[in-house]
Amino acid sequence: ARAEALAASSGPGLTRDGHHVALLANIGGVEDAEAAGPQDLEGVGLFRTEFVFLSSDKAPTVAEQAEIYRRVFAPFGSRRVVVRTLDAGADKPLAFADLGPEENPALGRRGLRLSAERPELLDAQLEALAVAARDTGADVRVMAPMVATAEEADWFARRVRENGLPRAGVMIEVPGAALRSEHVLRDVDFGSLGTNDLAQYTMAADRMQGVLSDLLDPWQPAVLDVIAAACEGAARAGRPMGVCGEAGGDPLLALVLTGLGAGSLSMAPSKVAMVRYALSLHSLPDCQGLAAAARGARTAREALDAVRAAVHADL
Ligand code: PEP
Ligand code: MG
Question: Cβ distance 62 to 120 under 8 Å?
């Protein structure tokens, strides 16, 4: 019965009572885009642009980038494509954007911090994205990685708009930005929670160290509290908040994140059908109850068990 229900689920993400949660794809390049484009999803919630250039030793030109971005956008027609500007450094080093060795790369000049030191890289990328958006007609929205402060968000939004791109957002993956999301989001159009880094920084546990996976677990109640604070701040600012970390692709966590206030979930495309099915079985108040149960737990294990015990199906 579950397999049939799963196969039959299609269309936009909706809770049982009709609350919309956009279901989006995480992609890393042209091949992923061509595979995800024909699938039943509402667009892209995270295009990790740095993946395209992992083996480039020279900075790609505007023309080279525009050609790639056109091929990434085209499979999505007029659907939304959320593009993250280069998230170089730490676990994603790029040869042409290397600022030299650092003692603590995860806490160093990575993401938007690197863009601030090499603004010519950011401007070339934004220019190429604007060209490709115009040429394809895709609904392109650009967001910055590793934003920590309101000033950084403002600086990024200004540069995005100067390049003729209509929508700017920020990733919320630093606890400081999550706690202050109302203020960080004031001059941007949306926020997107990066739960992988948010867990790393909330629990002070290196995401590259597999032995620390219990601490990196998004079911950690502290991580859920930080996510809740970020969603509440976004609501006060009147800005949509989504999730683009791996947590959004787990059906039980997807329910919890919906209950915490996430309005979109971006995940590996293979996960969309299961998450859509899970949402269809639960109302928004159900999801809010699951979120409260998870946050009421003392441990990650207890949070997961509490939600598992309360859901209406074997998800
Ligand atoms: C995240 O940090 O959760 C995220 C979506 O980005 P990445 O995994 O690429 O750092
Ligand atoms: Mg991240």
Answer: no
